[in-house]
Amino acid sequence: MTKLDTAVTTRPTRIRYIIAVLLFITVVINYMDRANLSIAMPALSQEFDLTTGQQGLLLSAFGWTYAAMQLPGGWLVDRVRPRVLYASCLVLWSLATLFMGMSGGFVALIILRLMVGGFEAPAYPINNKVATAWFPERERGRVIAFYTSGQFIGLALLTPVLSWLQTVLTWHWVFILTGVVGIIWAAIWWFVYREPRDKTGVNQAEIDLIASGGGLVDVETGVKKAAKPKLKWSDVKVVLTRRKLWGIYLGQFCLTSTLWFFLTWFPTYLVDYRGMDYIESGFMASLPFIAALVGVLLSGWVSDLMVKKGLSLGTARKLPIIIGLAMTVFMLGANYTHSSAWVIVFMSIAFFGNGFASITWSLVSALAPERLLGLTGGMFNFIGNLSSIATPIVIGFLVTDIDFAPAFVYMAAVTIFGVLAYVFLVGKVERVEE
């Protein structure tokens, strides 16, 4: 065998990039099923004659079970292989979504939305575990940014489509068709996804590249050999008593508050407070999502570039988050203009910042105790996504039929608090010891 032949046979394969695409598409579907209610809400609330308080309650229903199931979901992630757990969750939340399109009352919608939230709970801890197993540290910022961008690409492209679909076929079909798409994707995930050492096409050089770069290629093997240990209160104590972890927990709450504003109240704001029709609002609502997409892709590239240039991991991961959170305050500008165009400009700047800050899961990968990766991710997502409960309800009670300004004041205050959490609580980025 020649030296050239040896070089070719030992060159790492790139199967991990296929895994990144699988995560990306799954996130697109995940967020499509989170946002479909906000798109349908103006028509749905008119049909059922809902008050703003009732709308806020319905929009928050996802968050109640999504947050409540984060710790059980994280526990499951540490014990059930991603191939099985993700496929199961996809089928269950997609069925609940599909039946929302067949429901005929407020109570039924609430119950089904609670089910969607509960079954989606393990999704991001699974994403994080897959990324940690399949990618070395130096690539993880980019891959997390890439699959996270799925939430913005999906919403930017699908918001106008779903708004048009609602106009043509009624709001019921928004839920029916998005549910069917999720069930089909569950089957695809089941047939395609495998762990690094089990995946066809992966050579030893790629496994070595991942492992030497800090990827936990044997994390599932370790779980299997450990015979699925029971959750201990000492484990919960670890993830609840570390200052660094509380910094990212609180920061995530502040970051996702902005996201949940755009996922819940933003389309209603454009229709009811800015006088746009459904199709126009669908198009205009997609522009901030496009800006967020640019932000999240740029942040991953910038963060990994800083690591490559020799900056500390803390600077490379935290700086984009802090800058992005600070930019979110621009949404206050909507309170000082009557121009719909300027409203979209301010919202696009704010949501670009939210996207630029959306590599927060890279800090979970870097800070979490190795044995408690799923539990830490679950706690991170639990506290962070309490905003999915708080944001819709608080805004629903702050605004009136003619004044939406208090909502933007609340959002600006929350994001400033997030900046303070990352600056003063996280500190040096290093893995927390048990």
Layout of helices and strands:
Elements: H1 3-10, H2 15-48, H3 52-68, H4 70-77, H5 82-100, H6 106-120, H7 123-134, H8 137-169, H9 172-192, H10 204-212, H11 219-225, H12 233-240, H13 243-264, H14 266-273, H15 278-308, H16 313-327, H17 340-356, H18 361-367, H19 373-384, H20 387-398, H21 405-426
Membrane topology: Multi-pass membrane protein
Keywords: Membrane, Transmembrane, Transmembrane helix
Protein name: MFS transporter
Characteristic terms for this protein:
21 helices; mainly alpha; 78% helix; globular; 434 residues
Protein architecture, described:
This protein is mainly alpha-helical. Helix content is 78%, strand content 0%. It is built from 21 helices and no strands. It starts with a helix and ends in an 8-residue tail after the last helix. Residues 1-8 and 223-227 have low confidence and may be disordered.
Summarize the structure.
Keywords: Membrane, Transmembrane, Transmembrane helix. The protein has 434 residues and is mainly alpha-helical.
Mean pLDDT: 81
What is the C-alpha radius of gyration, as a whole number of Å? Answer: 21 Å
Extended strand count:
0
Put simply, the count of helices is 21
Low-confidence stretches: 1-8, 223-227
Order of helices and strands: HHHHHHHHHHHHHHHHHHHHH
Shape: globular
Helix/strand structural class: mainly alpha
Helix content: over 70%
Head-to-tail CA distance between termini: 48 Å
Largest sheet: none
Strand content: under 5%
